[in-house]
Design brief:
- The structure holds two protein chains of two kinds.
- Chain A has strands at residues 4-5, 10-14, 19-25, 32-38, 45-51, 56-59, 62-67, 72-77, 86-93, 102-103, 107-112.
- The mean pLDDT of chain A is 93.
- In chain A, 37% of the residues are buried.
- Chain A is an all-beta fold.
- In chain A, strands 2, 4, 5, 9, 10 and 11 form a six-stranded mixed beta sheet that branches. A five-stranded antiparallel beta sheet of chain A has the order 1-3-8-7-6, with no helix packed on it.
- Chain B is mainly β.
- In chain B, 0% of the residues lie in helices and 53% in strands.
- Chain B has no helices and eleven strands.
- In chain B, strands 2, 4, 5, 6, 9, 10 and 11 form a seven-stranded mixed beta sheet that branches.
- In chain B, strand 4 and strand 5 (42-50) form a beta hairpin.
- The chains are: A mainly beta, B mainly beta.
């Protein structure tokens, strides 16, 4: 039972343009959401997070938006750079299950010159 | 540079053999997780520990998998007997609850142990 879904397995974007990654969740108990980035042969690394009390969080080129009513979040990367080429995982948790992250299947982003 | 260390990085074994994967969490982190990544399931949680006590291992096949944390610097995941369907990358991650009990959300992952069971 996939509680976190990333319906786009891949995304190709030109360098300098905006990358938009989407994520949907089904569990209304989730109140903390995270994005992780993964390069081949490495473990996932934390990118950015957002609490359910907010609808936007920004960190440099990365912005995460949360729409609780739609159970949807998105990650915007602008401008996209070649080093952003990686797999991006959306994850969710509730504060009662600290760290018990439910991950989406991931979206492979390729940034082309 | 604090990091989560996993061994072995790669393991090829035959069906029926015992496999043990080890993880050294970041010093001071009180929560350790085992995740498995497969093409079909993505990243799935197998088990996790807080202050060395197992909190949840519901994601783990109980008949063949076992996870332990014999001390604060070592977590182990054992598969006995191994089967071809266990082939995956196994990740260990660690994190720490904030001093106020808050959830920072950031887990630190190791580089993973790639297991191939023939």
């Amino acid at each position: 039972d996939q509680q976190v879904k990333q319906n786009s397995p891949s995304l190709s974007v030109q360098e300098g343009r905006i990358s938009i990654l989407n994520c949907d969740y089904t569990n209304s108990m989730f109140d903390y959401f995270l994005w992780y980035k993964k390069y081949p042969a490495e473990g996932p690394t934390f990118l950015i997070s957002i609490s359910s009390i907010k609808d936007k969080n920004e960190d440099g080129r990365f912005t995460v938006f949360l729409n609780k009513s739609a159970k949807h979040l998105s990650l915007h990367i602008v401008p996209s750079q070649p080093g952003d080429s990686a797999v991006y995982f959306c994850a969710a948790s509730d504060t009662d299950s600290w760290g018990k992250l439910q991950f989406g299947a991931g979206t492979q982003v390729v940034v082309t010159p | 540079d604090a990091r989560v260390t996993q061994t072995p990085r790669h393991k090829v074994t035959e069906m029926g053999q015992e496999v043990t994967m080890r993880c050294q969490p970041i010093l001071g982190h009180n929560t350790v997780f085992w995740y498995r990544q497969t093409m079909m399931q993505g990243l799935e949680l197998l088990a996790y520990f807080r202050n060395r006590a197992p909190l949840d291992d519901s994601g783990m096949p109980k008949d063949r998998f076992s996870a332990e944390m014999p001390d604060a610097t070592l977590a182990t995941l054992k598969i006995q007997p191994s089967e071809p369907r266990d082939s995956a990358v196994y990740f260990c991650a660690s994190g720490s609850v904030g001093s106020g009990g808050g959830f920072t959300g950031e887990l630190f992952f190791g580089e993973g142990s790639r297991l191939t069971v023939l």
